[in-house]
Design brief:
By secondary structure, the chain is mainly alpha-helical. Helices cover 69% and strands 4% of the residues.
Length: 211
């Protein structure tokens, strides 16, 4: 099976898995947000939070397993995982739009992750990150397909880690909204933009770096 066939099957898995994830959210919102999802959050005492955290952890394991099965080298495994994650995340919102007609726009807020506590932000943020992941995965696979060794330098590592920390902070700094279930403050788009630009620069240096 060549690279393109592997990407196709990994993507099909991610699209189908995204529907499974979206269907769970459909049921949860019918139970806890019968009038439509909105902030502030409603984590009632009977909300199966531990189950939800375990489900999200299992999601990462499944997407990682898809990458490990599809790839043959350490970086190709990561590349397939990055593609699977990006396709899954984008189609998760596609399926929510199909089933719930939500989000109404990419600026709608969502709970993005629950580990170790809720991450919140506009839908456009994870979608943009997913696009970068898919691009990075594609570029890594193309490099290895051409017989080149992919080995990002220290500069790329530092920029990507810094970008990740900045973006993570933009999702989690509003403790009142996530833990005290209050209305969130306006999203810090400028902070996200800095982290996102750092991702782009890190990817540039990673692709430019030669072993």
């Amino acid at each position: 099976m060549n690279m393109y066939h592997r990407i196709l099957w990994v993507s099909l898995f991610a699209i189908a898995f995204a529907f499974v994830e979206a269907s769970v959210v459909v049921y949860l919102r019918m139970l806890y947000y019968p009038h439509g999802f909105e902030f502030p959050l409603k984590f009632t005492p009977d909300f199966p939070l531990i189950v939800e955290i375990a489900r999200e952890f299992s999601t990462i394991i499944m997407l990682g397993a898809a990458g490990i099965i599809a790839g043959t080298t350490r970086w190709s495994k990561f590349a397939y995982f990055a593609i699977a994650f990006g396709v899954w995340d984008i189609f998760y919102y596609v399926w929510l739009k199909v089933t719930l007609d939500w989000p109404s726009s990419l600026l709608d807020w969502d709970v993005l992750f629950l580990i170790p506590f809720p991450w919140i932000g506009p839908v456009i943020a994870p979608v943009l990150i997913s696009l970068v992941l898919m691009l990075a995965g594609w570029l890594i696979l193309q490099r290895e397909r051409n017989g080149e060794v992919y080995k990002p330098g220290k500069r790329a590592w530092m920029l990507s880690i810094l970008g990740s920390l900045i973006i993570l902070f933009s999702f989690t700094y509003d403790i009142d909204a996530t833990l005290r279930m209050q209305m969130p403050m306006p999203y810090w788009y400028e902070l996200f933009a800095i982290g996102f630009v750092l991702y782009g620069v890190a990817l540039y240096f990673a692709m430019k770096h030669k072993q």
